[in-house]
Amino acid sequence: MSADEPGVGSEAVAAASGVPVGETPTAVLEEGRTIRMGLIGLGSMGRHHARVIREVEGMELVAVADPSGDRHGVAGELEVLPDVHALIAAGIDAAMVAVPTYLHEEVALALCEAGVHTMVEKPIAATATEGRRVAQAFAKAGLVGAVGYVERCNPALLEMRRRMRAGELGEVYQITTSRQGPFPGRIADVGVVKDLATHDIDLTAWLADSPYERVAGQVAHRSGREHEDMVVATGRLRNGVIVAHTVNWLSPMKVRQTVVTGERGAFVANTLTGDLTFVANGDVTSEWDLDRQFRGVSEGDSIRYAISRREPLRVEQENFRDALWGRPSEVVSMAEGVHTLTVVEAVLASASTGETVSL
């Protein structure tokens, strides 16, 4: 993980998707020019995007669309347009897509055909096949295409990745994540794997700078819904890091934690609070024999870092803006989005067959 090569890991993950990557979009906007933004989907995520787009320097929200209307009252003085075609007709430079997952491909392809740069809320589409069509279309058109994985903009994870790339953890051995809490009423069209586990799969490959090599999954249906509400997934990345993800909608406790263990200790990120802690491997020998026999490496000093906290969704939109202006950007590429969705489908396939899936 060299800090001198910030794009290597992302390119490796993206290349695993089978989508052409690495080309600079040819249709970026003039730097500093105000970006005329459109937003389609004014639901639980769209309402937050509307607010943030209005706050980001260099962006202007000029059009919004939702066939279901504006139930959260975020349009303000803007007319609520009926569909993506009306949004395009408003004369936008770029768009944020926050419609239900099953509509991602249809809406994104319409925007691509019209020459509109686009960020799509995660996952990129309902299936990896659909996502690949979207990613290939944007690559062929030379447009900026991105996926909204907001956890990558969490301050604790950003600081963790910076320190990992600086070599502070040494060789990375294992990444584990826990994402648990009550069922969110906003979800109707997917299960917990495509809604929540997709975050953990994306951020794990990003932190480790490596695509997934193989995965195995177990799911449960305990709430009476069509889709799964619990999953435990394990796997290995191409660089040898082993991973484990525990995700569910049936916990009374809301947990958002990522732990990266390496040769010098472990980083623990609480993404609910934005806190990052480092627990070092210690060299203090315990004199209590019973205690000593239960410890592998010894427990060393624990440091809770003081880090600057900014709203992740704002950072995400600023990354999109920078990509549109042709600046270096940490925006999540559509090709990376396809890889993540491919892994998600492999987890579900493994749960169905009981076999480990190689990617």
TrEMBL record:
<dbReference type="InterPro" id="IPR000683">
    <property type="entry name" value="Gfo/Idh/MocA-like_OxRdtase_N"/>
</dbReference>
<dbReference type="InterPro" id="IPR051450">
    <property type="entry name" value="Gfo/Idh/MocA_Oxidoreductases"/>
</dbReference>
<dbReference type="Pfam" id="PF22725">
    <property type="entry name" value="GFO_IDH_MocA_C3"/>
</dbReference>
<keyword id="KW-0520">NAD</keyword>
<dbReference type="Pfam" id="PF01408">
    <property type="entry name" value="GFO_IDH_MocA"/>
</dbReference>
<dbReference type="InterPro" id="IPR055170">
    <property type="entry name" value="GFO_IDH_MocA-like_dom"/>
</dbReference>
<protein>
    <submittedName>
        <fullName>Putative dehydrogenase</fullName>
    </submittedName>
</protein>
<dbReference type="InterPro" id="IPR036291">
    <property type="entry name" value="NAD(P)-bd_dom_sf"/>
</dbReference>
<dbReference type="GO" id="GO:0000166">
    <property type="term" value="F:nucleotide binding"/>
</dbReference>
<feature type="domain" description="GFO/IDH/MocA-like oxidoreductase">
    <location>
        <begin position="158"/>
        <end position="267"/>
    </location>
</feature>
<feature type="domain" description="Gfo/Idh/MocA-like oxidoreductase N-terminal">
    <location>
        <begin position="35"/>
        <end position="149"/>
    </location>
</feature>
